[in-house]
Every structure is written in structure tokens, then in C-alpha cells.
Design a protein that fits this description.
It is a single chain. The chain is built from 11 helices and 21 strands. It is an alpha/beta fold. It folds into 2 domains: about 325 residues, Rossmann fold (3-Layer(aba) Sandwich); about 90 residues, ANL, C-terminal domain (GMP Synthetase, Chain A, domain 3). It has a 9-stranded mixed sheet, with helices on both faces. The termini are far apart.
Length: about 425
């Protein structure tokens, strides 16, 4: 097989023809069902399905969905499909809304994680000559370890900085010559803020690539980060349930996010009916893992909204399916005065305005006189024209058919998050 002159970590897999990919997926679907037979509770919820009864990948859609609630109810390891002695690691979700979701890893699961993350790095143009600074936390959150395993598998120099200490992060980037920033999507905003406060010259950095994920982030935020840090950004996806970051990434063609189909099977369904959506139509991503041993996922409803961009070979030469960047989550949708919207839509209305900081919050509250009100808190810099508030309100009205009350704050007045940014705070109370 001939391959295009585009760097790949595993060319024979990443450029595999579609029919061969689907044959491999079918083989691994059958193997996954065999693993699930080892867990009585998991087997019971799927039903009596003979792995050999799967005649094509399309037959997979006959199996029932797996939900987040079921994973939480199985806390801690109720759906684990590997012997306890084979489990070498656990990671888990935050559990802020109930029990956390615990993901167990076998030795093979950890190796698979490193493999897909190495593919992601190469898709972003990273080579063994690069220096990667990893800024997510190392702990129960999957981000830090995922980036670390992939970098080590690729053979790059790693700076495992972890979370926080942003001034020190900048010093490390400069002194050690980091060329790749790995982090959650909003962390570069904190670095920009700290750099401004410390009069740190960002042009002294050697950064050229930023691989960012864990949060929904708009094209406007992407443009801001690329301009201010002088980097090319890449959107990496993954979740605790799937084993962490590495599920997919956009390549240098920036024409959709490649999902590694030899390890994962994706479906797009109607969020209400659960019926399959045709390629090109937006719906909820349903994810199945094909090689994970500790906690295989069979038709897991992620709540993420996306669509299939293409199954044809990409300009980069990779043949794995491309999804649109995640637009939002069905469970993040906000309903206000009968209008449905997503946090990412708000971000695109605020970002990039002259004199306006990248920090903002939307407060949804009960008004003292009755009814609901939307307050938009923005931080401004010297030279901000107060008249531009009318432009912000007009854009909100045009796009969302909502007009917020705008409160102007000085830089630093909005609390800074330690992890993922919380931009929309619903304070209306239960039953709203």
C-alpha cells in the first residue's frame, strides 16, 4: 500500500481503506461482546447477543444504549469487565452531580491510550524534536496522564508541569524552550492574562502548536489564542468514559476531527428518538469502544452534539471518519424565556470585541419584580467604549432573540477558575 507524504504515527492503520477499517471494527465488536459476557450485570442489560450474530457493523445499532446514569449507578466498578487483578489504574469524572464515573484500565488499556494520543500528536504536526509542556492536572482527571503517555510514546521531551502556577508555567516555557502547549481549552486565556500582568513578552516563547480540549471552545476563541500565542491550535476530544483524551483530533487540514475508528465506533443519533441520523446531519454522538478491556462502552450516549463531516480520505491522507467540532452538549443546553441555546453560542458573541477581556459570565436570575433576567458580566480594558454595549446587546438579540443586562467590570473582578471555566450560572432555582 502506498501512503501520502504526510507524517503519521501508524500509516498502515491511519490510512487503511474504509472496507478494511469496517472489517476490523466488526472483528473487534465481536471481541468486545465476548468481554462483556464476563460481567453478569453488563451482560444482562445488553441481552443475549451472540457475537457471531453480528454480520456487519450496521448490526451494532440493534444493541441498547448505555447511559451516563447507568455508569454512575454502577459505581465504583459494577460494570468492569476485567478481573480485579488485571486492573492497574483508575481515573474518574468529577462526580459533582452524583457518584463519579470510574474508568478502570488494564495494562492493554494504558498502552492503547498512549497509542491514540501519539497519533493525535503527529496529526498536529508534533515530532520527536518537539518539547511538550503538559498543563492539565495529573490525578484522577485524565488530561495530564493522557498527554504524558502519548508524548512518551512518540519520544518527545516532556515538561509535566501540571495545573496552576501560571507565572511559573510561562517561565518554564521560555527557559526550557517548549514548542507544544497541551491543556484545557481556556487555559491559554489565563496565560495571556498573567503575561500581561507580569509584562511578559510572549514573543520570546518558542511555542508553535497548542493542543486543547476538555471544553467546548468557539472559532473566535481559537482565533484569539492563535493570534496572541502565535500557534496553530488543534481540537482534541475524549472523555473519562472513553479512557480520556485521544478519541480524536483535527489534523493540519482542519477539516473535521478524525476519530480513530480501529479503536472507536461512532454513531450520530436523534437526541430525542435515538434514531440514527444520516451523515451530514447534526445529532448526539453515540460512542462504542472496540479495544478497551476494563470498561468497554457499548453505544454510550455522550450528550455531545456533532455531525459526520466525511468518511472519504482527508487531504492529510487519513481515512478515519471526520466529525465536526463539538457544538455543545444536550445536557448543557440552557432554556431561558423559551429560547434554547448553548454556552459556545454565547462565547462567539462576546469574544474578540475591542476593549473587552476574554473573561465573562452570564447570570440567569429571578428578578425582584418577578420574571427572569439575564445579566452579562464583562471585563473591560482601558479605552473601552461604553457605547459598544449596545452592539453586544444587539448581537444577542439578533442571534438568540435575548437581550442581556450588561454589567461592566474591571479586569480581575470575575473569579478565575482552577479548572474548566463556568461561563453560564443559572441561579433561577429548581423548577425554572
Amino acid at each position: 500500500m502506498s501512503h501520502p507524504p504526510v507524517p503519521m504515527f501508524q500509516p498502515s492503520v491511519e490510512a487503511r481503506p474504509r472496507e478494511q477499517l469496517e472489517a476490523l471494527q466488526l472483528e473487534r465488536m465481536r471481541r468486545t461482546l465476548g468481554l462483556i459476557k464476563e460481567n453478569a450485570a453488563y451482560r444482562a442489560r445488553i441481552g443475549r447477543v451472540d457475537p457471531e450474530a453480528l454480520r456487519s457493523v450496521a448490526d451494532w445499532s440493534r444493541l441498547p444504549f448505555l447511559t451516563k446514569e447507568e455508569l454512575r449507578d454502577a459505581y465504583p466498578l459494577g460494570l468492569c469487565c476485567a478481573p480485579r487483578g488485571a486492573i492497574q489504574r483508575v481515573h474518574m469524572s468529577s462526580g459533582t452531580t452524583g457518584n463519579p464515573i470510574v474508568t478502570p484500565y488494564t495494562r492493554a488499556d494504558i498502552a492503547q491510550w498512549g497509542e491514540v494520543m501519539a497519533r493525535c500528536y503527529v496529526a498536529a504536526g508534533v515530532t520527536s524534536a518537539d518539547i511538550v509542556q503538559i498543563t492539565p492536572s495529573f490525578g484522577l482527571f485524565t488530561g495530564g496522564f493522557g498527554f504524558h503517555y502519548g508524548a512518551e510514546r512518540l519520544g518527545v521531551m516532556v515538561i509535566p508541569a501540571g495545573a496552576g502556577r501560571s507565572a511559573f508555567q510561562l517561565k518554564l516555557m521560555k527557559d526550557l524552550g517548549a514548542t507544544v502547549l497541551a491543556g484545557i481549552a481556556t487555559y491559554p486565556l489565563r496565560l495571556l492574562e498573567v503575561a500581561r500582568e507580569a509584562r511578559f513578552n510572549l514573543r520570546e516563547l518558542r511555542l508553535r502548536v497548542a493542543i486543547l480540549g476538555s471544553e467546548m471552545w468557539s472559532d473566535d476563541l481559537r482565533s484569539l489564542i492563535e493570534h496572541e500565542l502565535n500557534v496553530e491550535t488543534f481540537d482534541i476530544i475524549g472523555m473519562t468514559e472513553s479512557g480520556g483524551p485521544g478519541l480524536g483530533i483535527d489534523c493540519r487540514a482542519h477539516d473535521g476531527i478524525h476519530v480513530w475508528e480501529d479503536h472507536y465506533y461512532c454513531e450520530i443519533v436523534d437526541p430525542e428518538s435515538g434514531a440514527l441520523r444520516p451523515d451530514g446531519e447534526e445529532g448526539e454522538l453515540v460512542l462504542s469502544t472496540l479495544t478497551r478491556e476494563g470498561l468497554p462502552l457499548v453505544r454510550y450516549r455522550t450528550h455531545d452534539l456533532t455531525r459526520v463531516v466525511s468518511r472519504a480520505p482527508c487531504a492529510c491522507g487519513r481515512t478515519h471518519v471526520r466529525l465536526a467540532r463539538l457544538r455543545g452538549r444536550t445536557d448543557d443546553m440552557v432554556i431561558f424565556r423559551g429560547v434554547n441555546f448553548y454556552p459556545r453560542q454565547v462565547e462567539s458573541l462576546v469574544m474578540g470585541r475591542p476593549g473587552v477581556s476574554h473573561e465573562y459570565q452570564v447570570l440567569l436570575e429571578r428578578a425582584a419584580e418577578g420574571g427572569d433576567r439575564m445579566r452579562l458580566l464583562i471585563e473591560v480594558r482601558p479605552g473601552f467604549d461604553p457605547e459598544s454595549v449596545k452592539g453586544i446587546q444587539r448581537d444577542f438579540k439578533d442571534v438568540l432573540n435575548l437581550t442581556p443586562e450588561v454589567s461592566i467590570l474591571q479586569e480581575g473582578e470575575i473569579p478565575r477558575p482552577q479548572g474548566k471555566a463556568v461561563r453560564i450560572m443559572d441561579r433561577r432555582g429548581a423548577g425554572s
